Amino acid sequence: MIALLYQQDQEQQVLIEFEALINANQLSVENSRVIVRNNTLREKLFGRKFSSSQTINTIEEYARSLYLCYTDNSVNGFQSSIKILARAVQRTYFSGSVHSGFDQLSKPDELDSQEWRTTISGVRKQLLTKEILLDFRCTWSQWKANLKPVLDNLAAEATGISILHGQAADLGKIRSGSAKAIVLETFESTPNISIPCDIETIHSCKGMSLDAVLFMSSYRRSRDQDSGSHWCDWFADDNNSISEGNRLAYVAFSRARHLIVLGIPNPPSSPLNEAELQLLTQAGFRIENLIE
Question: Helix, strand, coil: what percent of the chain each, to 5?
Answer without folding.
Answer: 45, 15, 40
